[in-house]
Amino acid sequence: MVNYIWLGMMVISIMVAGIQGNIEVITKAAFEGADTAVKVSFSLIAIMTFWLGIMKLAEAAGLVRGLARLVQPITAFLFPSIPKDHPAMGSIVMNLSANVLGLSSAATPMGLIAMKELQKLNGNSKTASEAMCTFLAVNTSCLTLVPTTIIGIRLMYGSQDPTAIVGTTIFATACGMTVAVIADRTFRKIYNWRRN
Amino acid sequence: MFEIINQISKWAVPFILLVVPSIAFIKKVPVFETFVEGAEDGFATAIKTIPFLVAMLVAVSVFRASGAMQLMTDLFSPYLSKIGFPAEVLPHAIMRPLSGGAALGIATDIIEHHGPDSFIGKLVSTMQGTSDTTFYVLTLYFGSVGISRYRYAVANGLCADITTLVASLFIAHAML
């Protein structure tokens, strides 16, 4: 599916630019996109290195395992394929908590650490595992209790009630998360059924 | 309530930085060495994401700059406005799964022009707060461990994104 989306975006964009007579923007935009990508990856080096160090300490101290055991009732339902007490659980929980609190500089590294652990269980395959699909479904639809960035922007433009959107945000995210979990289960069944 | 959550957000990282090394030390873990040992992988993990992110962000950048996104907006907005979805917000809905920065830019622009307390302003604020940059996250997370076959992960993300969009629209009409 990602192949079609990627190819579709490229082909449609180049055709539209060609027909509208501004084909020259394509080259510039392509290099700008590549430039942004490399900058994002480089900025990841610092926070990744830092959080990997902290997580290694947490693991050595037995805290990751402890955290995994604490939330086991929920995660056992969401991730039946992960053995209980596995370090992947600990980092998944850390990632989701950071998401809920809106700590994006901690959430991304935790998520990547979780993916690392899940990839160990996946036998270093090039194909996503079921647990990874579930994790990403929950991660991308995850609840944010206080959307701080947008509240800041509302405040900047003189809103009388900048937090008025917190209730609507929580409602919409809860809907999204529920559907994400149901969709994950459904697609997993369809996918396995089609493969057999 | 929000003040409490704000305080928790502020204290969370310093708390972790205090508690984790302290407990490790009590458990006789050589703290400095262990930190360095874990941190070793940081560079490799970050660098590994480059090819995946370049592929995705080039497509997103070209899509925006070529006018294809604008065309898509013009094509869909007459139908969407019939079901109570303002055309002004559509670029945000299209951009949100692809690029967080671009979506935030669009949201800021809408809030500036329509006012933060207008219906459109509140709707776009809700949409910004609820959804995530699904494609970007998938590319980054899978890329960091070298996975190129995403199976049904994209379908999952799209389902969730469409649901949050519809739910945002519904609750905005109902409450705001």
Structural class of chain B: mainly alpha
Residue ranges of chain B: pLDDT <50 for 5 or more in a row? none
* Largest two-chain interface: A-B, 107 and 100 residues
Largest sheet of chain A: none
Shape field of chain B: globular
- Computed over alpha carbons, the radius of gyration of chain B is 21 Å
Oligomer: heterodimer
Name the overall outline of chain A.
globular
What is the number of beta strands of chain B?
0
The largest sheet of chain B, given as strand count, sense and whether it forms a barrel, is: none
**What letter string, H or E per element, gives the SSE order of chain B?**
HHHHHHHHHH
**How widely separated are the two ends of chain A?**
20 Å
Low-confidence sequence ranges of chain A: none
Structural commentary:
The complex is a heterodimer of chains A (196) and B (176). Chain A has two domains: 1-50; 62-195, no CATH class. Chain A is 79% helix and 0% strand. Chain A contains nine helices and no strands. In chain A, α2 crosses α6, α5 (87-101) packs antiparallel against α6 and α7 (130-140) runs antiparallel to α9. The longest helix of chain A has 37 residues, at 24-60. Chain B has two domains: 1-40; 49-175, no CATH class. Chain B contains ten helices and no strands. In chain B, α4 (50-65) runs antiparallel to α9 (134-144), α7 (100-114) runs antiparallel to α8 (119-130) and α8 (119-130) runs antiparallel to α10. The radius of gyration of chain B is 21 Å and the shape is globular. The chains are: A mainly alpha (196), B mainly alpha (176). Chains A and B meet through α1, α2, α5, α6 and α7 of A and α1, α2, α3, α4 and α7 of B.
